Amino acid sequence: MYQTLVTHLENGIFTITINRPDKLNALNQQVMSDLDNVMDEVYRNDEIKSVIITGAGPKAFVAGADISEFSGASVEEGKALAKRGQDIFFKIERSPKPVVACVNGFALGGGCELAMSCHFRLAAENAKFGQPEVNLGLIPGYGGTQRLVQLIGKGRALELLMSAGMIDANIALQLGLVNYVVPQDELIKKAIAILELINTKAPIAVAKCIESANAVFDETRDGFTVEVNAFGDCFATADMKEGTSAFLEKRKAIFKGN
Question: Are 54 and 13 in contact (CB under 8 A)?
Fold first, then answer.
């Protein structure tokens, strides 16, 4: 189905692997189109409960965008390129199903932006993060200037953005850019363990957590109002009735996503 992605679904966990290892999994327009389409599959397929995004090979998650596609672009073409990238990464960020980035090497430029659009990140010990666009006379265009500030704070973000500096996995952990650092051969296992736990929870409630947390950074929405409405909406679900009954009856809840 996808020219640049390999996908695998097992026990409700959908693994998306960006498969251009000879190009360090760089984002070209075909990869972006495939990511757009694969997220439609995530939204649509009820068998998918949660998602892992990673890169093929031992060297790179995504080492950046395919710069050859930028050559000769006009101002309007540049704006269109950034808008399309942002729209695709918003689709990841707003997914009602958890999306975790397993960063297995370089996550630079568009790769760092892709990782940041996921709900949280795990890093292999060899992972490196950075936004080196100023080296090209550019800035991040796929949401990087916004999400990096959200995740690590304005001062640290601006230093990385303006210096084109690169940080390793342990610094990323200290800054809060990633949740865990593990040996590379344990990266997917760790993500699966977390998602298997999340997948036992009420899917609608999980989706409402994502929506409400995203509203913190959305100036068009009042996050507290989003939370109030989401909380209330949960009362209409069978899963809420099952969860509260199971708690009172001292048994394990069985959620069905309705």
Answer: no
For all residues of the chain together, what is the average pLDDT?
Answer: 97
Structure tokens, 4: 């640049």
Active-site residue 113, yes or no? yes
Would you tell me how many other CB atoms lie within 10 Å of the CB of residue 50? 24
Angle between helices 154-163 and 144-152 (to 10 degrees): 140
Instruction: Choose the catalytic residue: 133, 211, 219, 242.
Output: 133
pTM exceeds cut of 0.85: yes
Can you read off the two tokens belonging to residue 107? 């996550």
Nearest CA among 210, 204, 199, 198 for reference residue 236:
204
* 101, 103, 133, 162, 226 from 111: Cα distances, Å: 10, 9, 12, 17, 30
List pLDDT tens digits, range 94-125.
999 999 999 999 999 999 999 999 999 999 99
Helices and strands of the chain, counted as H and E runs: 10, 10
Other beta carbons less than 10 A from residue 165's beta carbon: 13
Q: Cα separation of 32 and 35, whole Å?
A: 5
Q: Which residue among 41, 47, 113, 159 is the active-site one?
A: 113
